[in-house]
Amino acid sequence: MNARPNSPKKPSDPVEKALMVFFALLLVMPALWSSGYLYVFWTTDEVVSTRAIGNFVSMSGPGGWGGAVVLETDLGSFPLHSAASITKGTPLMLELRASGQRFICDARHTHCLKTHGPDFGPAWEGVKP
After folding, report:
1. Is residue 60 part of a domain?
2. What pLDDT, on the 0 to 100 scale, is given for residue 65?
3. Disulfide-capable partner of 60 in 3, 38, 70, 82 (CB 3.0 to 4.6 Å)?
4. Is 27 among the domain residues?
């Protein structure tokens, strides 16, 4: 308890202000991150177009600075964000989503993998996003 209630207040310590801002950011950042994740999750569901990219042949391991995984089909190669276990010969589809993101999925949609960049296969023919 303050012995003199009418005494002027001391200015806050700069370190105390910095710590308050730091802890406020620690509380706000998870909420911002999760809301961004939910936004991306909800906006990537609508499929604009699909095309067959052939049957699965092989997948390379991550390497280089980007750590991209390359999926190879009998029609081309596609860099991915992550790897998955896919049986050889599985027919794959390349889906273009409303958000502009592309995913490679099998016919039953048990595996959908986000592509990392441009594909190295045949160009999109007659497809308008």
Report:
1. yes
2. 62
3. 70
4. yes
* Residue 101 shares a structural domain with residue 73: yes
Query: What's the total number of domains in the chain?
Result: 2
Q: Please give the model's pTM, rounded to 2 decimal places.
A: 0.57
- In angstroms, rounded to a whole number, what is the distance separating the alpha carbons of residues 13 and 55? 65
How many angstroms separate the CA atoms of 11 and 8, rounded? Answer: 9
Q: Which residues contact 78 (CB under 8 A, 6 or more apart)?
A: 53, 70, 71, 72, 94, 104, 115, 119, 120, 121
20 to each of 11, 15, 23, 75, 80, how far by Cα in Å?
15, 9, 5, 56, 41
CA 79 – CA 70 distance, rounded (Å): 4
CB atoms within 10 A of CB 33: 10
- Does 120 reside within a domain? no
Range of the domain at 19: 12-43
pLDDT in tens, 76-98: 888 888 888 888 999 999 988 87
How far apart CA 90 and CA 8 sit, in angstroms, is 76
Cβ contacts of residue 6 below 8 Å, gap of 6+? none
Q: Is the pLDDT of residue 123 over 60?
A: no
